[in-house]
Design goal:
single chain, 107 residues, mainly alpha
Amino acid sequence: KPVTTAHLCHHLHWPLPHPYTPDQMAKLEEAHEVLDLYLWFSMRYPEHFPEPEGAKKLQEELEKVIGHSLAIRVRRNSSNKTIPNFEHRIQINRNNFDSIKRGNYIL
């Protein structure tokens, strides 16, 4: 019997709530991994996993929820000054990447 997007939604308890705790965030990450597996199986066994487009849409929606929740957490932590500004950390990573591309390895 083929595994459909409806089966996925039922077993993942879709729609998933926005996470407020680390455990809830971990559940979202696990759901993302399940969707990754579905997509992989759909390439190997398309007759048993016939709806990769639906799984991809669910995954994209889940990525938005995770991204939104992380952005809120980062903003909240940045305003409390408990961690460095996230944008600053991204800029540092880009600078390191540019250095590595030029052959200046930063360890």
